[in-house]
Fold this sequence. Notes:
The complex is a heterodimer. By secondary structure, chain A is α/β, with parallel strands linked by helices. Chain A has a domain at 8-99 and 227-351: P-loop containing nucleotide triphosphate hydrolases (Rossmann fold, 3-Layer(aba) Sandwich). In chain A, 35% of the residues lie in helices and 19% in strands. In chain A, the strands form two sheets. An eight-stranded mixed β-sheet of chain A has the order 6-7-8-3-9-10-12-11, with helices on both faces. In chain A, strands 2-1-4-5 form a four-stranded antiparallel β-sheet. The longest helix of chain A is centred in the middle third of the chain and has 18 residues, at 203-220. Chain A is globular, with a radius of gyration of 21 Å. Chain B is mostly helical. Chain B is built from twelve helices and two strands. Chain B has helices spanning 2-9, 20-28, 31-49, 51-54, 91-127, 129-144, 147-158, 162-188, 192-200, 204-240, 252-259, 268-298; strands spanning 74-75, 78-79. A two-stranded antiparallel ribbon of chain B has the order 1-2. The A-B interface holds A 75, 78, 80, 104-105, 107-108, 111-112, 114-116, 119-125, 133-134, 137-138, 180, 183 and B 191-193, 195-203, 206, 211, 214-215.
Amino acid sequence: MSDAVVVGSTLDTGSPEPEEAAGPRGVLEVNDVMVEFDTDAGRITAVDGVSLHLATGETLGLVGESGCGKSTLARAIMQLVPMQRGSVRLEGTDLGTLPRRELRRMRHRIQMVFQDPRGSLDPRMSVSTIIGEPLRVHGIGDRTSRARAVAEAMELVGLPTAVSDRLPSELSGGQQQRVGIARAIVTDPAVLVCDEPVSALDVSIQAQIINVLDELRDELDLAMLFIAHDLSVVRHLSDRVAVMYLGQIVETGTASEVFTEPRHPYTQGLITSVPRADAESATRLQTARRLVLGELPSLLDPPSGCRYRTRCPYADDECAATEPPPEAVDHTDGLHSLRCHHWRDIAVRSGAQPSSNSQEQAP
Amino acid sequence: MGVTVAKRTGEGPARTSEHGVWGRLISMLGSRGWMLLVLFLLLLVAASIVPDVFAPHDHEAQNLRARLLGPGESSSEGLHLLGTDSLGRDLFSRMVIGTRLTMFIAVTATLIGAAIGVLFGLLGGYFGGRTDRLLMRLGEAQTAMPMFLVAILLLSLLGPSVGILLVVLPCLVWPIFARVVRAEALRLREETFVEASIATGCSTSTILGRHLLPNVAPRILVLCVVEIGHVMLAEAGLSFLGVGVQPPDTTWGLLISEGRPLLAVAWWLTILPGVLLGITVLVLNLLGRYWESRSGAAG
């Protein structure tokens, strides 16, 4: 991205005091966000008191079943759905309280890649128009510098120049998603929100797109929120992982910790549910095998107390009575925390072991 | 010829509407048939731009010795292809001259109506809620009123003029455009690319103008073609009733009206402009529906 262009735009439209506000916690701070929807059947709380933070260059993987509120959280962060409670601070600026106009001007700092590559592109716009649109609507650069920035972005995501004049329908799914990614990075945002960017793609294409995102993150120093239900994908990309269940984050920690020493029964179940051809890990996990059983309870009528108790093998009366608060696992980095009354007992009972190398390899 | 061509090429005609009168008419025309329709429209356009090229006689030249000549008869001036009227004026030349005003009024009124309808439809469909209800009720109220009677009232109060026709006729068509565009906007606003535009930082006017409008444009164009025909009929109706275009200006509708008292003695004065009007409306309808079926099959 041409530096002059980006610096100029930051001065014009950026937050009042970005350097002061962007403290140690990072460029994106999400605090106690709650999103409710009215449906025909009643009011549902899709996201219930979620907090998370992202530092520059860091990737947070957000995992959970379909319908747990991951995408709604992404949309709340992007200010695409209204929040009932909580705040989203981007480089120190609270997006939720900004007037519409100011919010619009801030948007080039936080961009999103959507799940449906084809649907997220205007079918009547050419590839180069789509990628250049964020620059155009934010008035960044002039015609020639915009064309240059578009060409650079296309190169970064691996799109051949020959496709610039094509329509989205003339591209393959992988190329369409590359266009979506190019559009998201062309303004050189601080934060990139990826909402299941590969789940609509063929498996053979998924790896390519993941690699594109991986390279971009390093090259552009992006803070990335990566949402997926595919654990192996998340594991490959993420520095930290947050596990979501029924609108709440039930466990969060560094990727290696969460994947090798999952503490919350739901996380354990999720990780065990991933089919593995690896015999060693299969035997190791046999003792602690706890597949997630049954269906996700209805958001219309979430369980009392701990939300996972209806499917949890360890649930007892306490779980039904009181909601477990987020609790830090005593660990060196102090970032690992979870919501479970019994995690200490579970660790003993299931014989959770310290990191094993067999789990360390990339998928 | 049309049938065989359609079968041989296998492309084109109406995949979406195989049944019904329109469907059958559409499938009867092969790809060459469509060229004929387009050619006919081009001729009309040419006739409205340079009528003198097409008119064999001066349309205002009276010749009392050549009154009410039937089609194909000749006077001292030469052949009168479609006959003459009660003042001996050449009917074909008058129809050619009338094309310009007929086309001008129909096209302009349709475009004005389309502009209003598209704007209201986009706003209502995209914003929904109260805006939508207000705009759509307005359209319904308008549709519920017998607009033809209102038009007659207006025109007889204010005096007939082309200007007032261009106010009255768009009122007949804008609710149709508004309904179609609103339905499209309702569908499009749920598309991810609209959400993506908001996330990108597009303003509402950018979303409406640069994303929604181009996506409904093909349907608007098709509708325009069909509605031009309907407006033409409405104008002819008003002119026939004497509240539309006034002599010495002339349109096809006015020619029909002028010929009516002489229907028993000179049928061509009424029937021939009527046939031209009918064919034009039919051609516009067919073309509109044909394009609609084509774009439906493509998209």
